[in-house]
Amino acid sequence: MADSFQNEVPKARINLKLDLHTGG
After folding, report:
1. pTM
2. In tens digits, what is the pLDDT along the chain, a chain of 24 residues?
């Protein structure tokens, strides 16, 4: 469960970063 969480969090953060970088 912890492994899945560790994999999901960075992915979501990268998605957020990309979203902000492209201006939403």
Report:
1. 0.35
2. 667 766 778 888 888 888 877 765
